[in-house]
Amino acid sequence: MKETKNKKRRSFKGENNPMYGVLGDKHPAFGYKHTEEAKKRISESHVGSNNTFFGKTHSKKNKKRWSKIRRGTNNGMYNKSLIEL
Fold this sequence. Notes:
By secondary structure, this protein is mostly helical. The protein is built from 3 helices and no strands. The chain has helices spanning about 1-10, 35-45, 60-70. It is extended, with a radius of gyration of 21 Å.
């Protein structure tokens, strides 16, 4: 039984999923809006130890790499001033 479930899950991944590529007004959740209460519950459920990054830090190696990547023309603020925003 468990093997059948796993096989079925795998068969619906990616392009095999009937909802793959369904965007915009064709998507069943299109136009759905969470209530303010639901937004608050979702937000609170990700605070503190429930946050997936809780207690972790980015390595110095990655921070340095990201810093290099975002220099010059790759920086979103390149050739812009705060006034333009």
